[in-house]
Write a structure and sequence with these properties.
Elements lengths: L18 H6 L5 E6 L4 H16 L5 E6 L4 H6 L7 E5 L5 E6 L4 H10 L4
Parallel strand pairs: 1-2
Antiparallel strand pairs: 1-3, 3-4
Length: about 120
C-alpha cells in the first residue's frame, strides 16, 4: 500500500471502527461512496449502491459512507464534494475516484476492471 494514499488506515483506535478500514481488510475490491442522505445525487445513488451490495456480496464490498457520521474518515480520504466514489483493488490500493452521480453501468464497469464478475 502506498504511503501517500490519503485513505491509508489511520493510527488511531477509531480507524478500526469505521466501515472503510474494516472492508479493506477483506482482500476483495471495495467501492466506497461518500455522501449524505440529504443531497439529491446521493439519494439517487443509494438504491443503485444497495442493489450492487447485494449483487456482489462476497465478491466485493460496496459501502455507503455518510460524511456526517464519519467526518474524520471523509477528511482523511480528502473528500471535497459529495457524492464521491473511491475504488480500491483487492490489496486495498486506491485505483480510481469519481465525484458526482455515477450511473449503475459505470459502477459495474469499474468493478469489472477490478476483476469482479
Amino acid at each position: 500500500k502506498r504511503p501517500d494514499n490519503p485513505c491509508q488506515k489511520g493510527e488511531d483506535e477509531a480507524a478500526a471502527q469505521n466501515p472503510l478500514d474494516r472492508a479493506l481488510q477483506k482482500d476483495v475490491p471495495v467501492v466506497a461512496d461518500f455522501g449524505r442522505g440529504t443531497c439529491t445525487p446521493c439519494k439517487m445513488m443509494k438504491p443503485i449502491l444497495e442493489d450492487l451490495k447485494k449483487k456482489y456480496d462476497g465478491r466485493a464490498e460496496v459501502l455507503i459512507i455518510d460524511t456526517g457520521e464519519h467526518p474524520d474518515l471523509a477528511r482523511r480520504c480528502g473528500i471535497r464534494a459529495i457524492p464521491t466514489q473511491i475504488f480500491y483493488d483487492a490489496s486495498g490500493e486506491e485505483v480510481d475516484r469519481h465525484s458526482g452521480f455515477m450511473p449503475r453501468e459505470d459502477l459495474v464497469a469499474e468493478l469489472r476492471e477490478l476483476g469482479v464478475k
